[in-house]
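I keep forgetting this: the sequence line spells out the residues, with the fold written below as integer tokens. I include a record here:
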Amino acid sequence: MAKKTVLAIGIEPSLVDFSAFPGLTAELVTSYINAQIEQLRAMGNEADSWLIDVGDTAEAVAAAALGAKHYDCVVIGAGLHEPRERLLLFERIINLVHLGAPQTRLCFNTTPADTAEAVRRWVEP
């Protein structure tokens, strides 16, 4: 069976204000992201993580990630779909995925530590 390809798109942790999330730091979130990508690989998937900013280059970076190869599943990080102030960025990223990879499954994590669980709901290696 061919490996499934998974793309995780999220906000670069060093750009996040963690004041509303006691106990979380950029370093901790980065370690969660790396651990989840490794878990996806251990599950038999080919997994990539692309981190975007919250400004003008976010869409270009996400588009570049989507154009790099075919993905069976795209997981959208909680930092993109949770904070109300990022709704427009979230919509732009979702529409990029929809236009660039219309057959790709979409899933959403709720924390940086449950990405593999989100992917498992839609993709079996």
Observations:
- The two ends are 8 Å apart (CA to CA).
- The chain is about 40% helix and 20% strand.
- Helices lie at 26-42, 58-68, 78-81, 87-100, 115-120.
- The first helix runs from residue 26 to 42.
